[in-house]
Amino acid sequence: MTRGGGRPNFEGLNAQSWAALSLFLQNVERPDFKYIGFEGKKLEDFYLVFSDGKKIICESKAYKVGFAKIKEILDKVIKHGQVNEQDEILVICEEVDRNLEGLVENVIFYDQKIIGKISSSKKLSQKQLKLLPQVRFWKITQDISRKTTELLMARLLKIWVPPHRLSEIVRDLLEKEVYQGS
């Protein structure tokens, strides 16, 4: 989850937890949403599962994601063999390398010659390249993720709750269901 121990590990876990709770609340009212799972044996940080079998496999990073990190993420997904054509790989992070983001957004439009040049220059394997169209980025800070989660909870409650109580409700949910329940 992080590049070392201590404080970065704690920040990474918090960013991952807020992102997971936010995505859960964004999807909980969808009729096709089944459940959220945390750090499965062969899935990444967490994953959302839908009734049609689609999964959104999520990797959360509390820092900028570049080519080296996306290659590492894709290698883990490939190694675990749990991604299907209908699935998405959602990378949640604060920032994305501009060139990487452009590649992911446009790879479906490139011909084989361009893909070959990119593969060679960025040292991407064919398996990694095949997964790139399934990659999405959600650029968000932990603070914005926390605030978004509180707003989503307020919307789901459908009643007015004082802001300090809303924060308590969300933090309680985060602690009991995400930290302790995962």
What can you see in these coordinates?
This protein is α/β, with parallel strands linked by helices. It is built from seven helices and seven strands. Strands 1-2-3-5-7 form a five-stranded mixed β-sheet. A two-stranded parallel ribbon has the order 4-6. Helix 1 (7-27) packs parallel to helix 6. It starts with 6 loop residues before the first helix and ends with a helix. 27% of the residues are buried.
- Describe the oligomeric state of these chains in a short phrase: single chain
Mean pLDDT: 89
Order of helices and strands: HEEEEHEEHHHEHH
- State the helicity in percent bands: 40-55%
Strand content: 15-25%
**Strand order in the sheet with the most strands:** 1-2-3-5-7
Radius of gyration, CA atoms, in whole angstroms: 17 Å
Secondary structure layout plus pairing:
Layout: H1 7-27, E1 33-38, E2 46-50, E3 55-60, E4 64-65, H2 67-80, E5 88-93, E6 95-96, H3 98-106, H4 112-122, H5 126-131, E7 135-139, H6 142-157, H7 163-179
Helix pairs in contact: 1-6
Tags for this model:
single chain, 182 residues, alpha/beta, 5-stranded mixed beta sheet, 52% helix, elongated
